[in-house]
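Think of the structure tokens as a kind of shorthand, similar to the way a musician reads notation: each symbol stands for something richer, in this case the local conformation of the backbone. In the example below we present two proteins back to back. Begin with the first one, reading the sequence and then the tokens, and try to describe in your own words what changes along the chain.
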Amino acid sequence: MIRKVAIIVSSFLMVLGLVILSWGFRDLPIDERPEWMAWQMVLWPVIVLGLAEVSRLVGYVKKGLSVRADRFKIITHGLPALVVAMAPAGTFTNLFGPQSLWSLLDFPTAKVMAAVWLAFTLWTAWEVDTP
């Protein structure tokens, strides 16, 4: 139970960290980005981090160990990261107002960091079960 609470808290802290780090870029203009750019921003880190992780996971399977996905971690970390990375520019500003800290999640820096967060979550959510 404590582990699940820690994962939930760390997910919230990751979103808060995106807001805090984006604070320094708040005066830059936000341009709308094309849809292909959003997908590229998400897929690139997933693929790059996956290149290293797949070989590690395949090695475990070859040794006779079973590998399973930690769905709780994927949902609590992956879903918020996906929402931040893929939300159109201005979504958080419209939802929470322009003076809200959450509006900083509309900045490109937060979106790039969320894409990397998503990739890291997807590849570190694999658990090795020992026999």
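Once you have a description of the first chain, move to the second and do the same.
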Amino acid sequence: MTLSRDYDEAGNTRNTITLREPTAREQRQFAPTSDKASPAQLGALEEKMLANLADGLPPDFLGNLALRDYQRLEVAFSFFTD
């Protein structure tokens, strides 16, 4: 997916992110371990999973994306779960 602007990642400029489809094991790996997980815990798990699927980017990189770019990643991920 094309980002709304260029971002710096470890000295490299990026303007695209490619997500690969997760495996069933990865889906379980990043699933909440409790029904009482807080929104912050759920967000951190989602960020880690998306980073794992997104060209191996660090979660901090995704956390620093503009909200519209992060939401585009969420939409792209949703196509894998339809």
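Compare your description with these statements about the second chain. Helices lie at 24-29, 39-53, 59-63, 67-78.
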